[in-house]
Write a structure and sequence with these properties.
single chain
Length: 134
Amino acid sequence: MKTEARALPPDWAEDWTRAARAGVCLHCGNELGRHWQPADGPFCCRGCRGVWELIHAAHLERFYALKPATVAPAAALRPDSFAWLDRVLAEREATAPGDPTLRLDLDIQGVHCAACVWLIEELFRRQAAGIQLR
């Protein structure tokens, strides 16, 4: 669904304007949808905008050269999305006080794109405490 009739902010970057005019999400390439508004930016959902911002903040734009033309939109994060991690850290401190080593096994579901796997690996690799990722 093209959005040519809608007024777009004049200060948008060229790629933002191009994506919005084409009616596609700048991150995942899927349609913006009929309820899309320019205030949303050229993103189909908050999840895609959040991932796009993370990629650019970490200078991992290579993701876009690796990904297929369209991917499933990112899941929306709630304020409590990572509350479970606080519990894991508290349990670790209770069982091994002062030990800075934490082993965390994550089973990441729904990843169907090699570029998404690359992004997860690259973000982990950039963490000083990251030792192993498989």
